[in-house]
Inverse folding.
């Protein structure tokens, strides 16, 4: 059976793989605890569900314009003005099937074969594979825990070549939870404008900020707004992961190109989910406060507990809902009669012996860490971290 080189060259998503394994174990009755998933454990708010039901009852069940309804694009523009202080017109918005689809459109629209995209590491697992799908080349810009997993804007220029098309900025970040401040963003903007490269600003975690402030780089001036491709969506902010609504805001030429691509690939995103998203972006925003109070409690507990367990540690993330647990002290050691050499081997052993699902950091472009999501109940967090402690102390069977 023939499979294309392109498809064969794409790695499966390690975060979805661990989630699938976790669900499989759960379904067969194994009492496993999952820290793998990047999905709010809250329900979609009732006002959004009602908007979807009303949309179905009033006949919003047909094709819409391929790049989204005028009503939703208008609601997105109003949101970007209200929350991010950026002026966009509906012609600059493309609504897609989740931010993941928006990102795929972006790389397809900006990369010619061999064009380079700078990706700071650790990165969200899908970026390099998406760049590859579009025929582009990922150039990694490594960061360290000692620097808070942030690159220094002054380093950025060393990675820019005549083939560079864009840099990805994901603040707050998956997997590290770090956040760039205004001064850093101003410096990054200056470099992007100087070299005429796009900034792909993935802001899907913008509302999940515990310390500091989320700033959209596009709000820092007209020149950088022209070069910014802002990506956001409904999934993380409104607990709407299954509804699949994301969007881009960009210059008009790029928006037209992405809309054109999408019109042939998928046509419009689901019409009912679009109507519901108008309510999400424009209606009652109280779910955000409710989720934030809960996430903050969980983060504080998780950070303190991890740092009390010998052999592992973490820095405090300021946003999103992930913690990067440093496991380097455990590597090369013999645990349960076996030498554990990599974070991946460690995570596999923890899943087997402690029944806790973590995502090892290799898929995020860095060695020696495991990512834990605290988008799960406090009860699971307490029990799961107790199991990790038992494992590390050699007390599992
Ligand atoms: C950094 C980042 N960007 C984009 C996405 C995609 O979100 P969605 O496609 O659900 O809108 C995710 C999801 O995990 C993410 O973590």
């Amino acid at each position: 059976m023939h499979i294309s080189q392109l498809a064969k060259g794409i790695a499966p998503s390690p975060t979805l793989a661990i989630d699938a394994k976790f669900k499989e174990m759960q379904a067969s009755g194994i009492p496993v605890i999952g820290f793998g998933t990047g999905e709010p454990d809250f329900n979609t708010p009732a006002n959004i569900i009602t908007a979807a039901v009303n949309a179905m009852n009033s006949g919003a069940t047909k094709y819409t314009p391929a790049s989204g309804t005028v009503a939703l694009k208008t609601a997105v523009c109003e949101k970007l003005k209200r929350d991010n202080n950026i002026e966009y017109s509906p012609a600059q918005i493309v609504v897609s099937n989740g931010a993941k689809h928006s990102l795929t459109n972006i790389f397809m629209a900006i990369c010619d074969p061999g064009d380079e995209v700078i990706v700071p590491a650790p990165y969200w697992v899908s970026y390099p594979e998406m760049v590859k799908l579009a025929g582009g080349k990922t150039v990694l810009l490594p960061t360290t825990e000692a620097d808070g997993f942030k690159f220094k804007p002054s380093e950025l220029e060393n990675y820019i070549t005549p083939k560079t098309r864009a840099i990805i900025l994901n603040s707050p970040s998956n997997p590290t939870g770090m956040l760039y401040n205004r001064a850093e963003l101003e410096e990054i903007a200056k470099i992007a404008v100087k070299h005429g490269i796009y900034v792909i600003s993935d802001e899907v975690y913008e509302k999940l900020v515990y310390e500091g402030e989320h700033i959209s780089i596009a709000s820092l001036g007209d020149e950088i707004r022209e070069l910014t491709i802002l990506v956001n969506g409904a999934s993380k902010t409104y607990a709407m992961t299954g509804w699949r609504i994301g969007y881009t805001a960009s210059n008009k030429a790029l928006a037209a190109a992405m809309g054109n691509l999408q019109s042939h690939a998928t046509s419009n995103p689901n019409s009912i989910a679009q109507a519901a998203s108008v309510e999400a972006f424009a209606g009652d925003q109280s779910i955000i406060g409710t989720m934030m109070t809960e996430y903050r409690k969980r983060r504080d507990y998780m950070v303190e507990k991890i740092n009390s367990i010998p052999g592992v540690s973490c820095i405090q993330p300021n946003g999103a809902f992930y913690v990067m647990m440093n496991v380097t002290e455990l590597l090369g050691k013999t645990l349960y009669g076996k030498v554990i050499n990599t974070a991946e081997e460690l995570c596999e052993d923890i899943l087997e012996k402690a029944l806790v699902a973590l995502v090892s950091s290799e898929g995020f472009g860095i060695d020696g860490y495991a990512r834990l999501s605290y988008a799960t109940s406090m009860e699971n967090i307490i029990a799961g971290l107790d199991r990790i402690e038992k494992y590390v102390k050699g007390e599992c069977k």
Observations:
- Residues 38, 98-100, 124, 170, 174, 202, 204, 233, 235, 241, 246 surround pyridoxal-5'-phosphate (CB under 6 Å).
- The chain is about 40% helix and 15% strand.
- The chain has a mean pLDDT of 96.
- Residues 101 and 246 are 7 Å apart (CA to CA).
